[in-house]
């Protein structure tokens, strides 16, 4: 009997650890060390995904064994108790995961139980795309070209047969979590497949032109599915290749390539984190002096609650609270505002996103936050600072997105909304929306001076 330890691979199909296996005993362990970093939205999505996974196993005549505890103790105990021949799992690449997996492998070796691990979460495993000197890439451009050019594996077959485990899924409360404040998307392989199919039927052909417009609906919304593995990355690639084959013209084919490039970005940050596990808390880019981050609890709270007086920023932060999700372009805008306009440490923003996002992924979120803060790989130059009003006017010109998430402004003309920062107090309509908490032009200059001091230039 083969024990498969599920983690971020909550599916049967296109799962390399399960492919063509017979007599599979599936196990999921609620690890208290991992739960320390969890949050209500992600746990709600996880429980729904596990329920769907359990149903899939039951349809095949088996069941999912559910345990709680330290996997170093739980996995060898289950394997010994049930006379398992071999234990396998799909690799994860964060520092915490690597340490945990090494400890489980060592405990199983002491018990005389062989192990197998697989690279399943990404198309190209960390360490396989490097510079000519064998070093990890710190610049995406060269990584992305190699990534796109490499041959991709086909989706893997499901297991041949499964056996029954035993265990009851806990509730959020039993795991120590409240219900999430915001909604979460439907979880499970069927829901993920529906999202992929809908995206590849039409929006993928407009992705290149419209993906940065939050009201356009041209993103895949697969981020949580890829985070929890409710869909396999090889299946996603196969669907995008089929979409490319069905494209009507070169423009549509280029749009498909742009989406595939975003998949490459996801893997780039996974490779970066695997090579630099300390990045979860440390800057990637070293400065000569410490960056003089500000401590401003009132400003941080205004940012978190969407009360900064900058409409596109507040729309994004309110979308986060309402939907446990933020459009990617808006993520960059709100991150720039926190780290440059407010000069608040990127780690504060990273921690808030980790608490509120259903799709929080350590590698991707860390990479995005450090990019915005000019401390990461391939980072935004410190002197290029997003103007939140210009960003709003460019990517939400008709204020559809702003009007949806900042209802106080919904009845105002776009011109009024986009010039909110320029209006005098008596010129702003009394709709219960705040004046800007900072002046962007002033804060931009302060941010540049702060980074120049950190660089030893002032």
UniProtKB/TrEMBL annotation:
One of its GO terms (molecular function) is DNA binding. It holds the Pfam family FAD_binding_7. The keyword Flavoprotein applies. It comes from the Archaea. The keyword Plastid does not apply. PANTHER family: CRYPTOCHROME, CRYPTOCHROME CIRCADIAN CLOCK 5 ISOFORM X1. FAD binds at residues 207, 219-223, 259, 262-269, 359-361. Gene3D superfamilies: 1.25.40.80, DNA Cyclobutane Dipyrimidine Photolyase, subunit A, domain 3 (1.10.579.10), HUPs (3.40.50.620). One of its GO terms (biological process) is nucleobase-containing compound metabolic process. Binds 1 FAD per subunit. Belongs to the DNA photolyase family. Keywords: Chromophore, FAD, Flavoprotein. This is DNA photolyase family protein. Its cofactor is FAD. Residues 1-123 form the Photolyase/cryptochrome alpha/beta domain. The record marks 293, 346, 369 as: Electron transfer via tryptophanyl radical.
């Amino acid at each position: 009997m083969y024990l498969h330890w599920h983690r971020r691979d909550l599916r049967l199909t296109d799962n390399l650890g399960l492919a063509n296996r017979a007599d599979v005993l599936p196990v999921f362990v609620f690890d208290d060390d991992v739960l320390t970093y969890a949050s209500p939205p992600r746990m709600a999505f996880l429980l729904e995904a596990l329920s769907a996974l359990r149903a899939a196993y039951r349809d095949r005549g088996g069941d999912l064994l559910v345990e709680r505890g330290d996997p170093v103790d739980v996995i060898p105990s289950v394997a010994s108790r049930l006379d398992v021949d071999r234990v396998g799992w799909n690799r994860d690449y964060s520092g915490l995961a690597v340490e945990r997996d090494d400890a489980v492998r060592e405990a199983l070796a002491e018990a005389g139980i062989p192990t197998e691990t697989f690279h399943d979460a990404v198309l190209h495993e960390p360490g396989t795309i490097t510079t000519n000197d064998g070093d990890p890439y710190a610049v995406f451009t060269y990584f992305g070209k190699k990534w796109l050019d490499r041959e991709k594996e086909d989706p893997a077959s499901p297991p041949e047969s499964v056996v029954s485990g035993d265990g009851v899924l806990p509730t959020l409360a039993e795991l120590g979590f409240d219900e999430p404040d915001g909604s979460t998307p439907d979880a499970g392989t069927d829901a993920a497949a529906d999202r992929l199919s809908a995206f590849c039927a039409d929006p993928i052909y407009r992705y290149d032109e419209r993906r940065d417009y939050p009201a356009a609906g041209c993103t895949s919304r697969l981020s949580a599915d890829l985070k929890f593995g409710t869909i396999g990355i090889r299946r996603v690639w196969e669907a995008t290749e089929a979409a490319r084959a069905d494209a009507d013209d070169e423009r549509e084919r280029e749009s498909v390539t742009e989406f595939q490039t975003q998949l490459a970005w996801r893997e780039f940050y996974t490779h970066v984190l695997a090579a630099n596990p300390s990045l979860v808390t440390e800057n990637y880019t070293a400065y000569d002096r410490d960056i003089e981050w500000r401590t401003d609890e009132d400003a941080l709270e205004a940012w978190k609650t969407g009360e900064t007086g900058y409409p596109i920023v507040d729309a994004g932060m309110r979308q986060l609270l309402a939907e446990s999700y933020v459009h990617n372009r808006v993520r960059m805008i709100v991150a720039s505002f926190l780290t440059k306009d407010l000069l608040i440490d990127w780690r504060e923003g990273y921690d808030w996103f980790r608490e509120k996002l259903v799709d929080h992924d350590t590698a991707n979120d860390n990479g995005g936050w450090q990019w915005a803060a000019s401390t990461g790989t391939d980072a935004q130059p410190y002197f290029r600072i997003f103007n939140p009003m210009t960003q709003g006017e460019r990517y939400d010109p008709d204020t559809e997105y702003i009007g949806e998430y900042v209802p106080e402004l919904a009845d105002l003309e776009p011109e009024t909304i986009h010039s909110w920062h320029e209006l005098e107090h008596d010129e702003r309509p009394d709709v219960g929306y705040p004046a800007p908490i900072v002046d962007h032009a002033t804060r931009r200059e302060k941010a540049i001076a702060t980074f120049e001091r950190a660089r030893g230039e002032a």
